[in-house]
Structure formats: structure tokens, C-alpha cells
Amino acid sequence: MALENINTIVLLMFENRSFDHMLGHLSYDNINKGVNGLTKPLTQYSIPYKGDDYSPWKIKTDANMAYDIPHEFSDISIQMAKSAANGKYEMDGFVQAYLDKSGDSPNKFSPPLGFFKQEQVPVTSFLANTYSVCDNWFAPMPTSTQPNRTMAFCGDSSIHQTKLQLVKADGNIFDWMNANGVKWRVYHDGLSFFILYDHLWTELLSDRFRDYESLFHDVTTEADETFPQVIVVEPSYHDAPHFGSDQPNDNHAPLAVGFGEEFLRRTYEAITANQKRWGNTLMVVYYDEHGGFFDHVPPPAIPYDTKEDSPFHFNSLGVRIPGILVSPYVAKNSVCSSLFDHTSVLQLLAEKFTPGKPYSATVADRKNKGIESLSTALSAEADPAAPPPPQQIITVKSMLGDNIATAPSGDMGQAFENAAQQLITREPAGTADKYPELFQWKNSVDKSRG
Amino acid sequence: MIKIKYTFFSVVVLFTIITGTFSCKPLVHLYTVQPMTITADDSVFVSWSVRGKATLLTHTIPASVDPDNPQPETREYTLVVAKKGKEIKRTVIVDVRDLHSADDIVFTTLRKGDTLLAEGEKDIKKWGNHFLLQSVMTGSDRDLAVSHAGKMATLNADGSPSMVFNGVPNSGKWEIRCLLTAAEKQDSSRIPGKLRIHTILLYSKQ
Prior knowledge:
Number of strands of chain A: 14
Shape of chain A: globular
Largest sheet of chain B: 7 strands, antiparallel
Distance between the termini of chain A: 60 Å
Largest sheet of chain A: 8 strands, mixed
Shape of chain B: elongated
Radius of gyration of chain A: 21 Å
Structural class of chain B: mainly beta
Number of strands of chain B: 15
Strand order of the largest sheet of chain B: 11-15-9-10-14-12-13
Number of helices of chain B: 2
Largest interface: A-B, 30 and 40 residues
Helix content of chain A: 25-40%
Oligomer: heterodimer
Strand content of chain A: 5-15%
Strand order of the largest sheet of chain A: 8-7-9-1-10-13-6-14
Strand content of chain B: over 45%
Order of helices and strands of chain B: EEEEEEEEEEHEEEEHE
């Protein structure tokens, strides 16, 4: 079984892009006709708004957008557009959801309907076309970042929306890996997302959370005895504090995606740099949720009730996201259409490290409802070749955004601010050792808030 | 991109610049360009109310002849507002159409017993009232009963055009009805989520 040959599982989760938005071009441009992406003519994807008809369009230049795209659960309900006539998700409310929130005027180039061509996402496209692209992977819930990330790394969610909050981490993978003797490490290129889970702060301040710049060196030089079996790689989050030349690269709109492309290229180069280690590695590249961008595939009606005191009921999975499996143990240039959501990763971890024992009751329940393990995409035969990624210079039409003199706004930005402020207060010594830059940032934010 | 002057002949500019004395951030209170569908020789009204220094930029994007996704010529009107080193912008895109052009009208459906209903308003802010209907035909491969501007027409499934709405602006309220088929009554998942009609338009300033 291929899974027995995997010694290292690398998890890289980006932010807020849909499958069609990032990888719909694979089928549209006949790069891989087997992919369930966009096809011609684009007018078949009819997105009505006030009697007019809108369709996906090709983005010409990767640039920072004017605004983020709405993607809270109420917006996504509009985007998925369950028909009152036939009960199906028509996936045609993306223009309405955007205009309702932005106050913009409707136009043919509505931001949520734009999709990238290969030249704008060369690394994502390369990996998807070289290894195994998953074209049936959905966010676990039709809602925003915090609940979906919580589901991804805990297998359950105690929240249903993103807001200024610290989040419970019941069932998180770090406790689970500790309990099951799994060696793990997080490499974060900026403030870790896991700062939002105060239960994890001891780990956050430990040596198991390392600066991303250590990844290449550790992969190439560290002894097998200490090298982690599970690695979580975190990009620099757009909503988190940023300092000096630090550049977010998590692909969260309105950020251009070129920065994320460069981050993905560097990460791929790092994990393939040690040929022996690469021969037993699986890297999972996925997104927390679709970020409000158009996708044409309706999500399956697999319900979920959050673990809140008053549970919030979701009727379906969320919108489809890009998923790529990068490993010698996936068929080159293959398409995996098994039904995945983020708990498919947790199924894989349990199969690998606690065979015969599911990750949790919720993950097992989702498996019974049809969500499969990532192991279904693995093949018994290995092809250890690791073709180099495109070496082209990635250009982004951009300008510097807000600096640290600007206090965070929006729920996610303020949640990061709140968590960072509390970390400084409750763990001053550990913070000074691990995240010394937060003190200057706090000073600036406090001044900005007046 | 061309930096527009206030005397630019094809643009009538109504503007109010509200300078915020007590805030350092630029702000757009209001920005409209109307109508948002024109022909090549038309003027548009551009209105704004902002805090900061406003600059209006226009940019013409030629018509796309991409057979997969043809697009009419468009003009971008971008308002850039700057104040104390900060800048924000808002863009409105205007479609530029030929005097004769085709357009689809599409609305999502509701089931009313054995009838399927699609209704809504074709946006007058986007279309103005100079694009007049010449002919209308079904775009849903079925017979449709259509109401608009106090007139009613039956559109045949064979796609033959109706002239009932000849001379009426395409903007305003529309109602499209049809009967469910036996198969749709039996299996509601077969009911279409939208109904569509094709229209031929003639631009007229009369």
C-alpha cells in the first residue's frame, strides 16, 4: 500500500480561491481535458443579475484587487443560489453577492467571475498538471475562513462564522499527533494562523513552530530521527500584521496571487531538494475556502451541525477549492475526482498513524456520508522524478498596501490583532523570544487606534 | 489610460468635492456613471461626492472577438481620490453597443403550481431607455408567455420572433411564464433554474 511508503506529509493551505478561478484553465485551454474545470463557451455559465447575463472572464493581469470578495456564510448562500424551483444549487449568485456588499455597479468584468490563465498561476498550474489535481474537493462548510480552517485542523468546528474571537481547538491535530507519537512541525512565514487558538499558544511559542526560512535547511540536513512526519507550512497571511518588507502571500483577495505562486515554488523546491526524503513525501496543496470566487460545480448535500451551544446547521459542503497532491506516489499528470473535503486529510493521517482507528467520530461520520480519504489518490508504484517548477520571473502589478501605521480592519484582521495583543499580555517572555516584531507592531497599532 | 479633463466633450461631469478637514483618509460618498450602456457617440453623466482630491480617468477596452466569449467595447471610468498620501479608486465599466445589437434577458425561476415563473426588472440604471426592442424570441427551447411594459406576447418554442414589443425600451419589469412539462412535474430536479429570452435591440434617441 502506497501510504506505508509515505514518511512525510506536508500540508500547505492557502486562502480563499475557488477551483475554477485558479485551475479552471486546465480544461478551458486543453492543458488537461480530463479536469472538471471551465469549458467553452464561457456563456454556458449564466450568472443573472437584474435581467442581464454575466459569464466568467479571463484575467489579463495579476494585480491587487480593489476589494476582497464577500465570502461569509450569508454571502455564500447567495452565491450558491439554491433554486426555489428545483431545489438545486445553481451556483449563479456570485454577481449579486458581490454587488450587494461592494455597492459597485454591475459590469462584464465582475471580480468574482475572473479566472486565471496558466501564465498568471504558472506554479499552481505546473503542479496540478505534473502531479495529481483533485477536481472534486470542497470546503467542508459553506462559510468563511475561521470555521473551515478549524474543521481542517480539528475535524470539527465550534464556530460557524469568522469574527473577532479566539477559537476553541478541541480535537486539533497537534494534540492528536502528540497523543499518537507523531513527530510534527509548523513552518510559518509570518504570524501563524494558530495564534487564534489560545489552547495552542504553548506549542506556538515552542521550537515546533519554526520560521519558514528554516524549511529548506531542515529538509536537506536534518537527521531522520528528528525530522517531522507531518509538516504544516503556513504562508504569510494577508490579514495578519506585516512588518517592513514582509509580504503576504496567502492568496487572500484582494492580494495578487503572484506572491503565493512564488511561495509555492519555494516550498516545492524545498521539499524536493533532498531526493532521498522526497521519495517518501506527500505534499498537499489546498485552500481553506473559495473566497467568494465563482465555481460551477454545486457542492454535495452533506450536512454539518457546528459544535456550538446552539449548533448552526449547514445543508451542504462549501464551494469547490483547488487541491493538488504532490508526491512520487501519485500518478503523474493525473486527475483525482474522489469526493474530498478538508477532513479527507484527517482520514489520511488516521490511516497512516492510527490504522483501524478513525481520527474522530465526526470524521468517521463524514466518511460514512461519502467523503473519501486522500489515500484513494495514491498509487502503489512510485515515480521519484521531481521536475523543476517553471523558472519564469513572476510579475505582480502592485503597490505597497497598508503598513503597520494602519490598524487592522475587518473581522479577520481584528481577530489577529486581538489574539496578538492577548499573546503579548499573557505570554510576554515567549512572545519576545519568538515574535519580537509584535511589540513594535502593537506600539504602532495602539498609536493608530489613538 | 487617458487623464480626462473636465472639458472633455463627451462627458458631462457633475461633481462635488467635499474636503474632510478632520479625517486623513480619502472617501467616496457617491460615484455614478449613467447610463452604463451607450453607443459610440453617446455622452454619459459622471457624478461624484468625495472627501479628497478627485481625478477621473477613462480607458477604452476594444470589443473582444474571442469566439468563446465575445464582449462589446467597454469604457472604464475610474475615479481616483487622494488625500494625505492615501488613495482609493472606484471603477464603473460602460458597455458600448452598436445601433443594432442582440441581448438576452434572463431571470431565475419560481414554481407556482404547474407554472414556472421568472420575473424581475431589467436595470434602467444600466440600460437607460434608449435601447428599444425590435423583436423578441424564446431562449429556453419552450413556449413562453411574456409580459413587459403593459404588453403581452406568446413566444413559440420554434424560436420565431415576436414583434409585440417593437419600439418599447428593454429596461423595466419583465414577467416570463411557462407550463411545466409532465417530466418536470414528476421530477422537480428537471425544472430549469432560469428562463431566457433573446432580444434584438435598436438604439434610438427619440
